[in-house]
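[Q] Does anyone have a clean structure-token version of this?
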Amino acid sequence: MINVAVIGAGYWGPNLIRNFTSCPKTQLVAVCDKDADRLAKVLAPYPGVDAVGDVDALLARDDIEAVAIATPVSTHAPIGKAALEAGKHLLIEKPLAASVREAEELVALADSKNRTLMVDHTFIYSPPVRKIKDIIDSGEIGELYYIDSVRINLGLFQHDINVIWDLAPHDLSILDYLVGRLPRSLAAFGTCHTNNHNEIEDVAHLNLDFGNGFMASFHVNWLSPVKVRSFIIGGSRKGIVYNDLEPAEKVKVYDRGITINDDPEHRRGVLVGYRTGDVWSPHINSGEPLQTMVRHFAECIREQKPSLTDGRAGLRVVRMLEAAQRSIKAQGGRITL
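[A] Here you go.
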């Protein structure tokens, strides 16, 4: 078993604590948080786990092999560097870091220390996304045309990052997993409605161009009166709709699309026809994504194998986030990656 500690007992920390405790490949030995009252409350169900109030004291312990960081984004890089320097394997809540420079430093340091660096891109470990990956790789939907995603809800407002850095990493990590490469350019628009001095955008739209007729669009929003989690993939043969809020059939494959008539004799007529076929929902295995991710983290450490969401995958997502931020400040100017 891998001896693990969690740094941060706030919003996401308790989820990591629960899954590290229940995972048969990990042993949670300590949790660190500067808020003693919150730490005591979170650890009440886990009497055998040590409560630690100082990060340096935690990282100095020899009985801890790996550390999971669930703290504000601005602290990911400094705490992550300290953990790697202390020889710990590292799991960091998304996004990997607050800038490309910080993310690059973490990746380089993990390589030099020969430590596992993994990002908590939880959706990559979800059965629906894994199934979508299988369908795309099989060639069933044909050539990718577009991806349209909507991830909106009311709150939770962040004080140090905007809605893109908060919500878009989910969909950008899914996109990166499915496509396996960065877009050639992107543009983003965002606006703030809370009248704070930091001008933290709470509504935003992103457009990514991959070339060869393939593009992706994302809408993220903290102000929506309804919660929507929609991810649509259009291909030359079929389309896929992924709705994470569906209790049963989260993924549906549509045999619907267009046919194009290339016959020169018909150029003066209608060149585009419509095809309507069956709709089917593939069988998807059950399982908690976070538990799968925690188990994978332990396996990567013990077997010294690359992670599905390693530091380089996290770096690619941060590259897109940083470019989107630059585009917003440039009033939607297109940024080349």
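[Q] Thanks! Anything notable?
[A] The first strand starts at residue 2 and ends at 7.
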